[in-house]
Design brief:
binds magnesium ion; Rossmann fold; 9 helices; binds adenosine-5'-triphosphate; alpha/beta
Length: about 270
């Protein structure tokens, strides 16, 4: 099995040396294999977003080593990493350019990491390709190519953001509670779409969620973070047959803490 991402002894501290010093990641070790779809769960402030930010490079690494596809990226800039790592955030407004049309947004994502030519606008060949990709989402968006993104609903925007994030076959995709701001029905649609895109392109993915059922349902591996440490890491068959009470018990055993009901969605 080839490893796509390795994290060795990662530590992150905010406001170091001040009274507010906060040691958020406390020695994370993790190896992700090609095609791993890992769900991450943990209470508020456990360090989930900080972990994703460290991988993407938006937070410089304080201590530790991050390797992507065999290359040390620990000190690489966000821009350089973004050629291989794509992200989808909670806020549907984050992933797209509001004043540009659907096809202009897709064209930008399509050009990511390529040398830009002189041509502006969207080529006919690309338009047909975008239309086909949009049609595969089954949301009728193939008829909205020239609509301004800002006019679409949050769910439609999040679906397009997902498409943009996967258009160039990234080495790694990071999803940070990307359905949390959507209504329950739209959230289900976008989650199903996420699963479909990740599986069909055999992407290596990291998905933060607050929903324990979703964390169990999706992906092939599940990680629980507690106070900046991985306290549960289960995969394959064991994860497939896991129940929410079992997961809570594992968390309790390994962390010595109780899960608070208001921090995680325990039921669907
Ligand atoms: N850029 C930052 N500067 C200072 N403190 C930060 C920064 N980012 C996160 N923190 C702090 O680090 C801790 C972990 O935050 P993080 O966002 O990683 O948690 P999380 O597990 O994603 O939580 P949530 O479920 O609420 O999204 C929190 O105490 C937070 O206030
Ligand atoms: Mg977070």
């Amino acid at each position: 099995m080839t490893s796509v991402l390795t994290i060795e002894n990662l530590h992150q501290t905010f406001e170091k040396g001040t009274i507010n010093e906060n040691h958020v990641l406390r020695g994370i070790d993790l190896t992700m294999n090609a095609g791993d779809f890992i769900t991450i769960i943990g209470g508020n402030g456990a360090g989930k977003s900080t972990l994703l930010n460290s991988i993407a490079g938006t937070i410089p690494t304080e201590q530790g080593k991050i390797t992507l596809d065999g290359k040390d990226i620990t000190r690489l800039s966000v821009t350089k990493r973004s050629k291989d790592i794509s992200r989808v955030f909670q806020d549907p407004r984050m992933g797209t350019a509001v004043r540009l049309t659907v096809e202009e947004n897709l064209a930008l994502a399509y050009k990511r990491g390529q040398v830009r030519g002189f041509a502006t606008g969207v080529k006919a060949k690309n338009r047909a390709f975008f239309q086909e990709k949009l049609a595969s989402l089954n949301l009728g968006l193939e008829n909205r190519l020239s609509a301004e993104i800002g006019l679409l609903s949050g769910g439609q925007r999040q679906a397009i953001t997902l498409l943009m994030a996967t258009l160039q076959q990234p080495k790694l995709i990071l999803l940070d509670e990307h359905t949390a701001a959507l209504d329950p029905k739209t959230s289900l649609t976008v989650m199903a779409l996420t699963d479909q895109l990740i599986r069909s392109q055999q992407l290596t993915a990291f998905m933060v969620t607050h929903d324990m059922e979703d964390a169990i349902r999706y992906g092939n591996r599940l990680i629980m973070l507690h106070q900046g440490k991985i306290v549960v890491d289960i995969a394959g068959e064991q994860k497939q047959h896991l129940t929410v009470p079992e997961l809570m018990e594992m968390f309790h055993q390994n962390s010595g803490a109780e899960l608070k009901d208001d921090q995680l969605l325990l039921r669907s």
